[in-house]
Design brief:
The radius of gyration is 27 Å and the shape is elongated. The chain has seven helices and six strands. It folds into two domains: 154 residues, 3-Layer(aba) Sandwich (Ribosomal Protein L4, Chain: A), CATH 3.40.1370.10; 41 residues, no CATH class. By secondary structure, the protein is α/β, with parallel strands linked by helices.
Length: 209
């Protein structure tokens, strides 16, 4: 499978990149994608939620009425969960939502996501991108040249580039990552995936280990 390498204005450079069928042409595994996306979203959760139970509520422990003879249920103190302002029964406690997935399963998920992008014609190969200084205007002009202004985009760089990252940071639909940080969720969340020419070989090395 071959794709033409594009300039930053959308024109072809005359070069082509051969994409590995083992990565960009596999049979997609939807369940692997589900698990990988679920793990990614779970890892974003802070897990700092907390509510007070009856032993943590500030209030009197005096018995509010006698045990028998009132015709109502027994009540020990005003901190009881059945009263307004009392503690909560089985409330949330701080915890981690993260869970483990095998490396090979995560590789299958990323290969499946890349295959879907190829099938949807949402993948383009670009010349390597670099800016002299961080300017949002430059990144907007870059997207305009590729007719991607109104789409959610993911640009995959062969290595970290602070100027490109900072130039895109204020744009809500633009995302820039290095090839080592590519994940299934962001691949599928983007309407258009832009791979730099230098990223393709590194990506294939990572996913064929």
């Amino acid at each position: 499978m071959e794709l033409a390498v594009l300039k930053h204005n959308g024109e072809e450079t005359g070069r082509k990149v051969t994409l590995s069928e083992e990565i960009f042409g596999v049979e997609p595994n939807d369940h692997a994608i589900y698990l990988d996306v679920k793990q990614f979203l779970a890892n974003q959760r802070q897990g700092t939620h907390k509510s007070k139970e009856r032993n943590e509520i500030a209030g009197s422990t005096k018995k509010i009425k006698k045990q028998k003879g009132t015709g109502g249920a027994r009540a020990g103190s005003i901190k009881s969960p059945v009263f307004r302002g009392g503690g909560r029964i089985f409330g949330p406690r701080p915890r981690s939502y993260s869970f483990k997935l095998n490396r090979k399963l995560k590789q299958v998920a990323r290969k499946s996501a890349l295959t879907y992008k190829v099938r949807e014609n949402s993948l383009m190969i670009l010349e390597n991108v670099s800016f002299d200084s961080p300017r949002t205007k430059d990144y907007i002009a870059f997207l305009n040249g590729l007719s991607l202004t109104d789409k959610k985009t993911l640009l995959v760089l062969p290595e970290d580039n602070k100027n490109v990252y900072l130039s895109s940071r204020n744009l809500p639909k633009a995302k820039v990552v290095s090839v080592n940080d590519v994940n299934t969720y962001e691949l599928l969340n983007a309407d258009s995936l832009m791979l730099c020419e230098g990223s393709v070989g590194i990506l294939e090395t990572l996913l064929l280990k």
